[in-house]
Amino acid sequence: MLNALDIYNSLNSAYGPAVWWSDNAYTVMVEAILVQNTSWSSVEKVMQTLPQELKPLYISSLSDVELESLIRPCGFAKRKSATIIRITNWFRQFEYDVEKIKSFETDELRNRLRSIKGIGNETADVISVYAFHKPVFIVDAYSQRFLMKLGLNFDTDEEIKRFFEKSFRKDYRLFGWIHWLILQHGIKRCKKTPICHDCIFKNKCTSVVPIME
């Protein structure tokens, strides 16, 4: 049975080095909302139409209709627009000061983010790691499906978090990298209909699709 370190080392050898999100915390917050239930390519399309250095005051200057029009390629424009406005208002409470928010303990920050309508567990964790540098493992549909196929069955997302978090030092960059690597594996190999030929986990996977002669 593979452990967390085995998984990380195999993924890193296949897909590394990992790519990081923007260094702009506010950009990360907006992108984390835009990517909900859509592809990253759609997010990139939208971000190309926005200022390179995205700022809360720019978003606040837009009408609801203007913002919805800009983000429409990501789908669910009305809902995501409302969430972006809410998180922008939340950010304003701290005077747009990233360091003030970084001072919160990890669990407190996660709870504060989850209290914003439209921000669920996964989005809160993405923002915590990539915007505010908190060392948490991000559980998403890709990681759930991937681990299940490796025969690692967990009853809850919290069990998945513990599986990874107990195995590595508390380093937000490391957890961000692991999340990105699993995402790459999910996009390129471990899809709903997997591509198993030459997969690095082919000999460990419980649902390898045989090659048809």
Automatic annotation (TrEMBL):
Keyword Metal-binding in record: yes
GO molecular function, one term: metal ion binding
Any one GO biological process: base-excision repair
SUPFAM superfamilies: DNA-glycosylase
Pfam family, one: HhH-GPD
Family annotation (InterPro entries): DNA_glycosylase (IPR011257), HhH-GPD_domain (IPR003265), HhH_base_excis_C (IPR023170)
Annotated HhH-GPD domain residues: 34-184
Keywords: 4Fe-4S, Iron, Iron-sulfur, Lyase, Metal-binding
Protein's name in the database: Ultraviolet N-glycosylase/AP lyase
Organism classification: Bacteria, Pseudomonadati, Bacteroidota, Bacteroidia, Bacteroidales
